[in-house]
Amino acid sequence: MTVGFSSIAKAQTSGSAVKVVVFDAFAVFDPRSVFTAVESHFPGRGSELSATWRTKQFEYCWLRTLDRSYVDFWQVTEDALVFASRAAALELRAETREKLMSAYLQLEPWPDAIPALNAMRGAGLRLGYVSNFTPNMMETNTRRAGAIELFEHRLSTDLVKAFKPDPRAYRMAEQWFGVPRESIVFAAFAGWDAVGAKTYGLKTFWVNRLNAPFEELGAAPDAVGGSLRDLAKYVIA
Amino acid sequence: MTVGFSSIAKAQTSGSAVKVVVFDAFAVFDPRSVFTAVESHFPGRGSELSATWRTKQFEYCWLRTLDRSYVDFWQVTEDALVFASRAAALELRAETREKLMSAYLQLEPWPDAIPALNAMRGAGLRLGYVSNFTPNMMETNTRRAGAIELFEHRLSTDLVKAFKPDPRAYRMAEQWFGVPRESIVFAAFAGWDAVGAKTYGLKTFWVNRLNAPFEELGAAPDAVGGSLRDLAKYVIA
Fold first, then answer.
1. Is B72 a catalytic residue?
2. Which CATH superfamily is domain A32-105 in?
3. Is A62 on the interface with B (CB under 8 A)?
């Protein structure tokens, strides 16, 4: 089942006609400001609380898709925060909860993101999101970054009530852009998302910004890099 | 979305005609001997490695059910171990991997399990598993415990190629026992599994042996206890 990194291209070119590049929101926006906010509200306990919050945030997405009890990513994120506080035996006041949740509407793009997005758009590529973020989370953060015009379709899993890696989520890219999956590159932030998109049949680039270990899920992304600069090199022929 | 513990019955009686009790394997078998084996192979690193192994073991189940790349729980468990070793920067030799995996075939029942199972069977209840375990994992451990005759159906998610909490997994209990879901009690070890079974429509008892915090998943088990002794009190009218 092991697929070694050595078999994966590093920031080479994609090799065939890419028309569309779709992004996970965290490939564009840095989530770490949320964790900084957690630490400022719970000094000394931030990394423990953030780690649980983050793990549960995604586990709840998968569980609620599997057991057919979908709620949107905003709700899942808030539920995960409530769980993480309880698991850490920390009192979570309503104001604190609101403050921490609002950090998800004030994300900064990674420093390389906007220049690389502009370069890809300038090269004639069509851009979009395929993200667990709610439409509001995507729009608010993208507007703040002055990048709203760059994204032709902002596809939220909320449209299909199924979180990634359910195939219904990745399928939105084909359906909304109206091009075959082979001409779409998906830019993942998480290793599991890269595998999910690849398993679905999209061409997949793992923007492995935090140098995370490769997931043992039986499939590998087509290429791996450290930034959207690497991605731009990969997709611009 | 919060459902407080106060709204959940603690080891009262189930209140209506229960005919069948189905168990998650970990409600019967104690997984902690696996973690002891990990510590003995990686002194000082056991709890870190075990925590990642365990988290990934279940995440991989959910991801592979969602993205339609199902492999059985034995494979998922081995893949998760490979990931966890790599994440901890520990070399995992083939012999060590085999030794640690074989710990999953040498699980001991929780001390209260066999007497309580006998009491339930003696009271005329029909017993079974609904478990992610492969048929071999269920059979080997149950035979070692001398309890194979107690279980009428040992239902593995491998039969439907979908891990819990996918409804196809819980549905097996109705299909194989041939009784309506309202007369089946599911005994969960994990909080998410209790919620999944309840969301599907089984009567659900959370055997919360490790006093884990309640999951924020929008549904609550019908009752909570600390052992199969508590469960027996709940189901024996």
1. no
2. Putative phosphatase; domain 2 (1.10.150.240)
3. yes
